Amino acid sequence: MMNVVLVGCGAMSKAWLDAARQVAGLAIVGLVDLDAERARARAREYELAGAVIGTSLDAVLDQTRPDAVFDVVVPAARRDVALSAFAHHCHLLTEKPLADSPDNARAIVEAARRAKRVHAVIQNRRYVGNVRRIRRFLESGAIGAATSIHADFFVAPHFGGFREEMRHVLLLDMAIHTFDAARYMVAGEPAGVYCQEWEPANSWYRQGSSATASFDLGGGKLFTYAGSWCAAGFRTSWDSTWRIVAERGSIVWDGEDGLKAEIVQPVREGLFDRTEPIAVPSLDPADRVGGHLGIIQDFVRAVETGTEPETRGSDNIKSLAMVFAAIESAETGRRVAIAAQEGS
User: Fold this and answer.
1) What distance in Å separates the CA atoms of residue 301 and residue 294, rounded to the nearest whole number?
2) Using 50, 70 and 90 to split pLDDT, how confident is the model at 344?
3) Residue 321: closest CA among 162, 213, 209
4) Spatial separation of the C-alpha atoms in residues 177 and 131, rounded to whole Å
5) Mean pLDDT to the nearest integer, 4-19
6) pTM of the complete model beyond 0.85
7) What is the pLDDT averaged over residues 250-271?
8) Which of 187, 188, 175, 184 minimizes the C-alpha distance to 132?
9) Ramachandran area for residue 208 (φ above 0: left; ψ -120 to 50: alpha; else beta)
10) Quick check: helix, strand or coil at residue 94?
11) 69, 117, 231, 248: which has the fewest Cβ within 10 Å?
């Protein structure tokens, strides 16, 4: 049995609790929020009658002595939550982003290493079936190595609340999903970025609702990202739309069920080489999928077996570095190098 305290009982906590109730052997023994009534409401909603309710994480951890902490707080509070969890010898699973600054990200990853605790991030776009299929297909070498990766994200949600007031809202709040998926699918090691942000006349956000970025992912791979939180009409998938160009063909994915690939044939027809469809294999039984549920299951398995989860902080920090480097580039108007991050 794994006992868990969840901290942060806002709207996002529902996705965590919906998934957690499906994991055998996992018990939510405490709920923490600055608003105790909000925590009590979650306890009633999910029939957690025995859960300890509190406004102080340290106090609830002292009382419950759990195995792990689920962190669903705002990013600015993430470092304090992490340090508290590790000080109480707890493993930690945290909502994205890993931290609100590069320094805090490094501090959290280092604290997890010193504490010898499992630390992972809910980077759930990796747990999408077609992301797994693309990675496996490219690894097979069927169309050669990826050279160019292009992703478009155009969605226009009216969130209300803090998002519409925050700076760098697209890059800081959403783009890491696409950045992490790109890095994963082509096994990229980010080395540099040039990024621009702007606020279109039709925007209802304070700053940074639209951006373009061009990343060097190493090994001759370039990744371009174009996105907007205020592009009404012809909405893309939340998982973006993709074109990946490789040495001997291409993959296109609509971010949903439409996944196709073509391979170049040794025949030229006028100006163009002939291309033919090539099947992208189905999911392998070993592929990890399932969004929040898949990541929580992976986290529990890692704790139980003493292994590392796929979305471990020491790896996810590389995707977060892409976000902060893109923000720096947008603010300075210059290309920003992305330093090698701690990995494992």
Assistant:
1) 11
2) very low
3) 213
4) 11
5) 96
6) yes
7) 96
8) 184
9) left
10) strand
11) 248
Nearest-angstrom CA–CA distance, 247 and 141: 10
- Give me the DSSP letters along 268-311: EETTEEEEEE-PPPPPPTT----HHHHHHHHHHHHHHHT---TT
DSSP structural state of residue 203:
-
**pLDDT digits 0-9 by tens, 79-135:** 999 999 999 999 999 999 999 999 999 999 999 999 999 999 999 888 999 999 999
Q: CA end-to-end span of the chain, whole Å?
A: 28
Query: Using an 8 Å Cβ cutoff, are 198 and 244 in contact?
Result: no
Residue 320 parent element (H or E): helix 313-332
Position of tokens 């969130």?
A: 159
Asked if residue 305 has pLDDT above 60, the reply is: yes
Which ranges of 46-186 does DSSP label H, i.e. alpha helix? 57-64, 78-87, 102-115, 129-140, 169-173, 175-185
Instruction: Walk me through the domains of the chain, giving residue ranges and CATH numbers.
Output: 2-117 (3.40.50.720), 126-283+320-337 (3.30.360.10)
